[in-house]
Amino acid sequence: MAYSQKVIDHYNNPRNVGSLDTKDESVGTGLVGAPECGDVMKLQIKVNEKTGVIEDAKFKTFGCGSAIASSSLATEMLKGKTIEEASSIKNTQIVQELNLPPVKIHCSVLAEDAIKAAIEDFKKKQAAKREKAQEALANA
Amino acid sequence: MALDKKSLESRPIYMDYNATTPMDPRVLEAMMPYFTEKFGNAASRNHLYGWEAEEAVEKAREQVAKAIGADAKEIIFTSGATESDNIALKGAVEMYAEKGNHIITLLTEHKAVLDTCRRLEREGKATVTYLAPKQDGIVDLEQLEAAITDKTIMVAIMMANNEIGVIQPMAQIGEICRKHGVLFFTDAVQAVGKVPVDVNAMKIDVLAISGHKVYGPKGIGALYVRRKNPRVKLAGIIDGGGQERGMRSGTLNVPGIVGLGKALEIAIEEMPSEIKRLTYLRDKLKDGVMSQLEDCYINGSMESRLPGNLNISYAYVEGEGLLMGLKGLAVSSGSACTSASLEPSHVLKALGVGDELAHSSIRYGLGRFTTEEEVDYAIQITVEAVNRLREMSPLYEMAKAGIDLKTVQWNHH
Lengths: 140, 413
Known about the structure:
The complex is a heterodimer. By secondary structure, chain A is of the alpha+beta class. Chain A has a single domain (5-139), classed as Sufe protein. Chain: A, CATH 3.90.1010. Chain A is 50% helix and 19% strand. Chain A contains five helices and three strands; from the N terminus they run αβββαααα. In chain A, a hairpin with a 6-residue loop joins strand 2 and strand 3 (54-62). Chain A starts with a helix and ends with a helix. By secondary structure, chain B is α/β, with parallel strands linked by helices. In chain B, helix 5 (111-122) links the parallel strand 3 (102-106) and strand 4. In chain B, helix 2 (25-31) runs antiparallel to helix 8. The A-B interface holds A 1, 3, 8, 11, 14, 17, 19, 31-42, 60-65, 67-68, 103-104, 106, 109-110, 113 and B 316-321, 324-325, 335-340, 342, 344, 354-356, 359, 391-397, 405, 410-413.
């Protein structure tokens, strides 16, 4: 199967490969997919806790070229967006941008899931942090 | 004899000889006259055109028979091994219906055998036992013998596997079949012309051959059907002029047949030196990647295997993603990320290779035109691509951090 130029570019020069500290409260981590399905994506965002803007995004992906390209593109799309803006990213935008063929649409779906999972993880951490702060306040 | 390397320079190095092979120029040369001046129908009995075509077909029949230790009368020509497999199974089920309707085969067979069996089951014409091979890909002979019933008419076990190159203990399977009066059919597409095959020593009753796996043309194949001890009869699946002893009607593909005969003649002649050369190159490839990369696993037995085949799983990287990194190399993967099912290779699954490792497999097929330089290049780019993708792999990161990937709760897609 022939890949689009954009997929090849992301595969050869993946943007933002790497990892952020999962314990950092300003970091949200999404891990989606399963090895036996042939795709696993780990996508992380680092959010400015005051402004809610995503300042950094990193990924690591086990998967085909389209899966790697989808997650690489996702990190590019996330940077500079607020959490709310990021929540509205749709897989169809990735499909369009990368010219993914029908058999590869699941790669973009997985990337959207990874974004959502990372945001959810960040929100959970923030909620836990607030709870902790309130507890500390009540105990004070 | 070398291919025109110049015109191939800008193309990836071909290392997928289990999928197909380039035609040997000597084969093409032998075929050429039969497209143009010697175009006759081998069934035309009344003039020179028919006679010379028939003569060429009979010469090829001898060449094919000689390659497997058979008699020329026992060879019928088909359009390829898929058709040969279909005739063997469907033809036997129809012809031996009075004796029984049970077939025994292996889960690692080619789809041409497995899907034919499934159709026969679906249509209520046969019951089929699908045996799982041992972890090294080799059939469990005790299990095979135990599966035979008084209704069993045929055991269908391929000689060498197309994905993992594993060679089955043919003589022992043949012995078991003969002892129980069951026909032994083998799809020997990957083996004929590559390793010694002898239908008598191995007690094979029916055997399928393909042209394009042995440096011959595509669209031609053959089926060996034993004529003596026992005399095997197969019902044809294509009706028409009654060619090929009624087992395969249709005007003979004379140039294709000439090509298949020539291809096998060359393959047999060069077999001893090719076995040595390809075993050396294959082992060099294996040792080259395995000494530089950790967590690689060979799929299938290394002891009983085709000389040119290597199938390795590189843990933590996905096969299709890896193929993209090996763009200078034409190889294939047992991962099926392109198919809607996302199901990896049925062969690797039958061996008990976990789905994640099945998704990480690469098949290298070396052949007649593979050079040592090409093998060195394959080692180098495989190591580079696997390392690069592992740096990008969350699974590698987790494994390095000491996380057991089997204990992780994955959210299945």
